[in-house]
């Protein structure tokens, strides 16, 4: 179901498991451990200095898509990745509710058992397919050591998804978010997540976003590519704004897609546990277990606001008008529509 921008672009006077950067242990005890044998994660912690050196990256190009250079170096391994028939892929453009959807899916897979979903950080429970920051930080390696059924996270545009996901007919859930909120969230994420280069001013970042000169490229190409693919493949296409408006309805859509039934009480537990307020204070979901050299929550929390329409607090009138025109041009001819605010 889409939402038409003609009715909801917003013309007021003023205006993201996301991208996972690296896996670090979810507790101080594990941080101190010399072995990772008992952990799902494939990572041995790097020293703060090594992490700082390893992660700040300029963008390279992967088949025309701007991407972190270390991810590009790891691409052959990602391209050759062997999906399993019972894998479920969670796909999003960055900052589009990835961690939220990942937490919901992990809760569904564990029948609403909150304690099981606190077993590890979300970036270990739902490994990030194309992650490659160093020899120790590798999504493919982590996934190969994850028992089935696996939840897999990606931000890849549809044309770059490893072919094994199509060959094995894996179920895929894609969640899209309106671009105005995405760009603001992505800007703050660039500031706090240390893999990114300096985003510059908000105005500069907005220009780069509109031009597709940010990690994972054009938001427009990404959401449209996956939207068009769902006509031929087993893809459930969700909208962040629908999830905000009526999470119960969207969870029921997911359950129907999975062919799974849960009691009303279990669904209530999932909705409560995955509310923004609960996730924000949950170390297994809010990325606070990341070292400050990877994510600096003092600059901006990973789970920042979790609302629709925050762009109105940031866009100028001129920026909003220009963005609306640009949006209409690039979305012309598509029946994919977004709500810019609730």
TrEMBL record:
The keyword Transferase applies. One of its GO terms (molecular function) is sulfotransferase activity. It comes from Lonchura striata. Its EC number is 2.8.2.-. The gene is SULT1D1. GO terms for cellular component: cytoplasm. It is found in: Cytoplasm. Keywords: Cytoplasm, Transferase. This is Sulfotransferase. The lineage of its organism: Eukaryota, Metazoa, Chordata, Craniata, Vertebrata. Its main location: cytoplasm. Residues 1-20 are annotated as: Disordered. Residues 8-19 have a biased composition (Low complexity). Residues 85-334 form the Sulfotransferase domain. Belongs to the sulfotransferase 1 family. InterPro entries: P-loop_NTPase (IPR027417), Sulfotransferase_dom (IPR000863).
């Amino acid at each position: 179901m889409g939402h038409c921008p003609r009715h909801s672009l917003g013309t007021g006077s003023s205006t993201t498991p996301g991208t996972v950067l690296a896996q670090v242990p979810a507790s101080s005890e594990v941080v101190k451990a010399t072995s990772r044998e008992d952990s799902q994660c494939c990572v041995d912690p790097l020293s703060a200095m090594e992490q700082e050196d390893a992660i700040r990256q300029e963008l390279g190009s992967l088949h025309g898509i701007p991407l972190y250079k270390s991810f590009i170096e790891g691409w052959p391994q990602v391209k050759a990745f062997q999906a399993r028939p019972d894998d479920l892929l969670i796909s999003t453009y960055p900052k589009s509710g990835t961690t939220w959807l990942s937490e919901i899916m992990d809760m569904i897979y564990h029948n609403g058992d909150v304690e099981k979903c606190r077993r590890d950080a979300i970036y270990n429970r739902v490994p990030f397919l194309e992650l490659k920051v160093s020899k120790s930080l590798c999504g493919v390696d982590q996934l190969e050591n994850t028992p089935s059924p696996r939840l897999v996270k990606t931000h890849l545009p549809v044309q770059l998804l490893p072919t094994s996901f199509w060959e094995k007919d894996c179920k895929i859930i894609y969640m899209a978010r309106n671009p105005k909120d995405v760009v603001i969230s992505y800007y703050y994420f660039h500031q706090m997540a240390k893999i990114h280069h300096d985003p510059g001013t908000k105005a500069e970042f907005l220009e780069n976003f509109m031009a597709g000169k940010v990690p994972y490229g054009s938001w427009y190409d990404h959401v449209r590519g996956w939207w068009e693919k769902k006509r031929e493949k087993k893809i459930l296409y969700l909208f962040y704004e629908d999830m905000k408006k009526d999470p119960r309805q969207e969870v029921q859509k997911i359950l129907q897609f999975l062919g799974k039934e849960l009691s009303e009480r279990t669904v209530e537990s999932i909705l409560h546990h995955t509310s923004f307020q609960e996730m924000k204070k949950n170390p297994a979901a809010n990325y606070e277990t990341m070292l400050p050299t990877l994510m600096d929550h003092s600059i901006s929390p990973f789970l920042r606001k979790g609302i629709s329409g925050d762009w109105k607090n940031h866009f100028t009138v001129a920026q909003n008008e220009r963005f609306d025109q640009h949006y209409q041009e690039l979305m012309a001819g598509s029946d994919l529509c977004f709500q810019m605010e609730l």
